[in-house]
Each structure stands twice: as structure tokens, then as C-alpha cells.
Design a protein that fits this description.
The protein is α/β, with parallel strands linked by helices. It is built from four helices and 38 strands. Its EC number is 2.3.1.191.
């Protein structure tokens, strides 16, 4: 068990401690469920009602909430960010592997740095390069001439194809595939002719990729994911996509080929993005967005239809199907009004 004194917590969070600096905590818990030895945090004012009765040893709060707290507290600018930083220090998640498993298959020409771990039944092919402190989970595959940077961890069953480059301190969750063929085919009189995908995938530093994601290699040139990008589970990134620095993409999103997503974008879950378009920096797309054209200005964009009761949705759907008819009728009425206007002005 990892324990921290409240003074250590305050130092990590960059906050001001109110209370007993020697008291210790070992895990985070919600305010209404916390017990002595736990630490909690308050970000939403609607949960302030739990503060007075909270049994946690300490709570991370803003200055405005200090008067409502009767126990130990650490005052910070942003409790959620403080929570993230402290939670990292209390994290008890095990590594995906420790040491080199006897059943791992590692090519003699692979280059392994210091303190590398490779789990059971993992395969590291010829020319692959694993930097210091890389962790490869059980059943992973690292293809020929692939490169994985210092401190990066792959959980079990991750496939990294040939020539793929992954940067430092990245985290890739189970079942993800990086460097599979892009969806490239030509059609000759109904017959599909495969186009070899000769590019690769370049992943930057501090990138996190969720479970069962798929990042395709480029057809010509590379698919690129820049530093500090976070990708959720079940995301499809097609060939030659370029994702800019600091962008966050939620689960089940699909990005078609040769699209550029700018820096610091936030893309909601189940969004579908067309190919060969550009999305500007600092664009937010809400969930279930359908992006068919380039977005040239930062801002918030939406297109998904919110949930309705079925009876209301049926009426809405019927009206949508009649939009063309209604538009024609409206134009006819407008034309009649214009003619009437002209007649009246001529009198």
C-alpha cells in the first residue's frame, strides 16, 4: 500500500495545507463514501453539501469552499488537476510485465535498452528497438524494425506492425493495433485490387491510446499522431491521418483517410469524420458529430440529434422527410407575395 502524508500531498498538488501535516492517506474516495485514511476532492459546488459530513482524512478544495470544511483540507487552484497529480502518486496499477518472461520470443537482432520487460508469449521481431524502461505485455507483437521509446508501456495483446515508431512515455491499452494496412483499393470492373500500404505510423511522446483502437499505416507517407494526444477506446484512425498536439478524441470515433485534425481539438464520442478534409486548431465537436467538410475556424460544432420520446421523434422524422416539399411550397408563397407586392406598388 502506498501512503502519503498530507504535507507530501500538498507539495504534489501545489496547494496550501489546513490541518495535520503528519496525517496520512492511501487512496481516493468519493466524499459521501470516504473514510479515515481516504482523500477526496470537491470540484462541483452541488456536492458541497457532503463537505461538512465527509469522513475523509483530507479533501482537496478551492479557497471559496474552505469555510465549509471542518477537517483537514488542501486549498488548490483546481481540485481536479490536483486530484490527477496526487492520484498518480497513489496509483497501485501493476506494470503489464516485469522482467523477461521465459516464453517471450525475442529476435537476436532486436535491440533492448536497460530495464526492459517483456511478458509471456510476446514476440519481438528482427531489428525492433525497445528503449530503456519499455514494458511489453503478454502476447504482444512488435514487428520488424519497429521502434518504441523510453518508458512506453503496451498492455497485453497489442500489435505494433513493422517500421512503426512510438515515442517516449506512451501508454497503449490491450487489443490495440498500430500500423495495420489502410483501406486502400482500386476497382477494375468490379474487382478489387489491393494498393500496398507502404507508409508507416509515427506516434509522438506522451500519447495514450485506449483499448481496441486501430491506427492504420499510411498508403504513401505516414499516419502521424503528435505529442500529448489522448485517444479513447475503439477509435479508428485511417491511413495518412494527422492528429495535432494535445488533441483528445473520445470512444468509437472514426476518422477517414488523409484528414488533418488540428491542435488542442476535443472530439466527442461516436463522431464520424470524412476523409481528405482539415479541422482547425481548438475545435470542439460534440458527440455523434458527422463532419463532412473542413472546419476552418475554432469553436464548438454539433450535428447529432438529441434523444426524444419515440412519438416525438416520429413526428420529427416525418417532417424531415417533407423538408424538400415544404421548401418548394415556401418558395411558391414567397413568389406570390413578391408578385402581390409589385402589383400593389404599381397602383
Amino acid at each position: 500500500m502506498i501512503t502519503l502524508t498530507l504535507q507530501q500531498v500538498a507539495d504534489i498538488a501545489g496547494g496550501t495545507l489546513i490541518g495535520d501535516s503528519a496525517a496520512t492517506v492511501s487512496q481516493f474516495q468519493a466524499m459521501d463514501k470516504a473514510q479515515p485514511g481516504d482523500i477526496s476532492f470537491l470540484t462541483n459546488p452541488k456536492y458541497r453539501k457532503h463537505l461538512a459530513q465527509c469522513n475523509a482524512t483530507c479533501v482537496l478544495i478551492k479557497q471559496a469552499d474552505a469555510e465549509h470544511c471542518s477537517g483537514n483540507a488542501i486549498v488548490v487552484g483546481d481540485p481536479y488537476i490536483a486530484y490527477a497529480k496526487v492520484a498518480q502518486k497513489l496509483d497501485k496499477t501493476p506494470k503489464a510485465a516485469t522482467g523477461i518472461a521465459p516464453s517471450a520470443v525475442i529476435s537476436d537482432s532486436a535491440i533492448l535498452g536497460n530495464n526492459v520487460s517483456v511478458g509471456a508469449n510476446a514476440v519481438i521481431e528482427t531489428g525492433a528497438r525497445l528503449a530503456d524502461n519499455v514494458v511489453i505485455g503478454a502476447n504482444c507483437f512488435v514487428g520488424k524494425n519497429a521502434s518504441i521509446g523510453e518508458g512506453t508501456q503496451l498492455w497485453s495483446n497489442v500489435a505494433v506492425y513493422h517500421d512503426v515508431q512510438i515515442g517516449e512515455r506512451c501508454l497503449v491499452q490491450s487489443q490495440t493495433t498500430i500500423g495495420s494496412d489502410g483501406f486502400g483499393y482500386a476497382n477494375e470492373q468490379g474487382e478489387w485490387i489491393k494498393i500496398p500500404q507502404t507508409g508507416s505510423v509515427i506516434i509522438g511522446n506522451r500519447v495514450e491510446i485506449g483499448a481496441s483502437a486501430c491506427i492504420d499505416r499510411g498508403a504513401i507517407g505516414n499516419t502521424i499522431v503528435e505529442d500529448n494526444v489522448i485517444l479513447d477506446n475503439l477509435i479508428q484512425v485511417a491511413h495518412n491521418v494527422h492528429i495535432g498536439y494535445g488533441t483528445a478524441i473520445a470512444g468509437a470515433t472514426t476518422i477517414a483517410g488523409s484528414t488533418t485534425v488540428g491542435k488542442y481539438c476535443i472530439i466527442g464520442g461516436a463522431t464520424v469524420i470524412n476523409g481528405h478534409i482539415e479541422i482547425a486548431d481548438q475545435v470542439t465537436i460534440t458527440g455523434m458529430g458527422m463532419v463532412m467538410r473542413s472546419i476552418k475556424e475554432k469553436g464548438v460544432y454539433s450535428s447529432g440529434i438529441p434523444l426524444q420520446k419515440n412519438a416525438e421523434w416520429r413526428k420529427t422524422a416525418t417532417r424531415v422527410h417533407r423538408i424538400d416539399e415544404m421548401n418548394k411550397r415556401l418558395k411558391t408563397v414567397e413568389k406570390q407575395l413578391e408578385q402581390q407586392d409589385s402589383t400593389e406598388q404599381g397602383l
